[in-house]
Specification:
TATA-Binding Protein, 3 strands, elongated
């Protein structure tokens, strides 16, 4: 069976901001058990990385949509905690024609 994956790297202004974002997601992800997808989240220095692997594209899309909502909330939390502007970039997983 073929697996599908998506990777995203977010670059924060500093290590503390990236850790705030990670810590804001961890409580939700502990109870987030999926049969068709898995997620990996890491922080190295100021880089917050996410990798989602799924058995099918529907599961990948559902997991991605859920994580994007949580990431948006964590961005707002970091802005509130730090009072600063976040720098971020995304890595494209695929290209559409």
């Amino acid at each position: 069976m073929k697996n599908y994956s998506f990777s995203l790297m977010l670059f924060f202004s500093d290590n503390i901001s990236a850790k705030i974002a990670l810590n804001s997601l961890l409580p939700e992800l502990r109870f987030w058990q999926r049969k068709r997808s898995q997620s990996e989240i890491n922080v190295k220095k100021n880089v917050f990385s996410i990798k989602i692997t799924a058995k099918d594209t529907t599961a990948l899309k559902a997991s991605l949509n859920s994580l994007i909502k949580l990431i948006g909330l964590s961005f707002n939390l970091v802005k509130t905690q730090k009072g600063g502007i976040l720098k971020w970039q995304k890595k494209k997983a695929f290209r559409t024609p």
